[in-house]
Specification:
Elements (H helix, E strand, L loop, with lengths): L14 H14 L7 H14 L3 E5 L2 H11 L7 E5 L4 H9 L3 E5 L10 H11 L3 E5 L9 H11 L2 E5 L7 E2 L2 E2 L6 E5 L13 E5 L2 H11 L3 E3 L2 E2 L10 H33 L4 E2 L6 E2 L7 E2 L5 H11 L17 H4 L3 E2 L3 H8 E2 L9 H17 L1
Parallel strand pairs: 2-3, 2-4, 3-15, 4-5, 5-8
Antiparallel strand pairs: 1-9, 6-7, 6-13, 8-9, 10-11, 12-14, 14-16
Bound molecules: pyridoxal-5'-phosphate.
The site of pyridoxal-5'-phosphate has 15 residues, from helix 3 and helix 4.
């Protein structure tokens, strides 16, 4: 049996027909930018994230840049980011003119190391810290991280590209954030039919600034408060997301069922995984196995041979990129991020996976490791 790493085409019965008629209706009325679909989406996002303001934008990378600009991070400011995250987190800091330094990660949950964070704050007095909630949950110490930043007067930006629908202590993970972002890249838990993203906050002025920067820095149609950029979400993406939200609880349920099935099989067969901390209700975004470094290539080859997809989220740290020294100021903590890159191996995970697909994928990993 072949299993894709992710199957974006497994739509619910009737979904594509509804989408087809939505495209027709929007096109017939030439409704392409803004309009009721975007407003409806922002209202729904507010309620999903339990935040006061949700501003849609063009993608998750812009969302981080908008958040940084809205809180006043700019030229020459120091920003601490995790050493293990998607490159967009690093990129966003550089693109606003600020200077990134990395914090090592905690291998128990993939969040940042608290001691390394404290060291970075002491040494650099950064203007902002960005944390990334990877894999469908957040750091077990999320509240401690938020408190440290509040106490030190440092803005904490939470990159929530991978955690839409996840909860901490019974509340949306975005609710307790000062400012947070997400991506609706198609492979995300809530994915668009292209690129899209959003920023969430409870602060009215921050929300106003995000909207202003995402629409050319406009005050009025032809007068400008500042130089912004065009990062509007287009109407088709909003419409696709509105439709997808109707199905999201079922999709998350299906993902989380697959996670539970993986946990049953993998934990009884001695496979190491990073799993969601106890205080989180995850969204089932991704499976994270840690395999012996020396066998990773062989394991990948066996999966390719068997036609079973796998992921590598992420194979190397921010500080390891060839171009990083050009931009990066410092690196705090040890080498967990580098080790994580060398050992991480993600099994297929997507909504409506068949039980047999989960079993086959998990069993291939177990058999391969046992044979080496
Ligand atoms: C952690 C993280 N941050 C930022 C992004 C960037 O989002 P986008 O691809 O929508 O720009 C992604 C998504 O790929 C991500 O996973």
């Amino acid at each position: 049996m072949k299993v894709p790493f992710i199957d974006l085409k497994r739509f619910e019965y009737g979904f594509l027909e509804k989408w087809e008629s939505k495209i027709f209706e929007l096109s017939k009325n030439a409704n392409f930018i803004g309009g009721p679909e975007v407003s409806k989406l922002e209202e729904s996002l507010k309620s999903w994230t339990q935040t006061n303001y949700a501003v849609s934008c063009a993608n998750g990378t812009d969302a981080i840049q908008l958040a940084l600009r809205a809180v006043g991070v700019g030229k020459g400011d120091h920003v601490l980011i995790p050493d293990s995250t998607f490159w967009a987190t690093f990129e966003a800091v550089v693109n606003v003119g600020a200077i990134p330094s990395t914090i090592d990660v905690d291998l128990s949950d993939g969040g940042i190391e608290i001691e390394a964070l404290k060291e970075g704050i002491k040494e650099l007095n950064p203007k902002a810290v960005i944390i990334a909630h990877l894999y469908g949950w957040g750091s077990a110490k999320i509240k401690e991280i938020r408190n440290i930043c509040v106490e030190k007067g440092i803005t904490l930006v939470e990159d929530g590209a991978q955690c839409f629908g996840a909860e901490v202590d019974g509340e949306s993970i975005y609710k307790g954030a000062y400012i947070s972002t997400t991506s609706f890249y198609p492979a995300k838990v809530l994915g668009a039919a292209g690129d899209a993203g959003a920023v969430f906050t409870n602060d009215v002025e921050i929300a106003r600034r995000i909207r202003m920067y995402s629409n050319h820095g406009r005050k009025d149609h032809y007068s400008y408060e500042d130089v912004g950029f065009n990062s509007r979400m287009d109407t088709f993406q909003a419409a696709f997301l509105n439709l997808s939200l109707e199905y999201l609880p079922d999709r998350i349920k299906a993902r989380v069922n697959a996670v539970a099935q993986y946990n049953d099989i993998l934990s009884t067969n001695g496979i190491t995984q990073i799993v969601a901390p106890r205080n989180f209700k995850e969204n089932g975004y991704c499976n994270v196995c840690l395999v012996p470094e020396e066998h990773k290539k062989t394991i990948q080859a066996r999966f390719t041979e068997a036609g079973i997809g796998f992921g590598n989220i992420y194979p190397s740290a921010m500080s390891e990129q060839e171009c990083s020294p050009k931009y990066q100021n410092a690196r705090f903590g040890g080498n967990n991020s580098i080790l994580l890159g060398k050992t991480v191996f993600n099994l297929p995970l997507f909504p409506y996976m068949a039980k047999e697909e989960v079993d086959t994928s998990a069993q291939l990993l177990i058999d391969t490791i046992n044979s080496l």
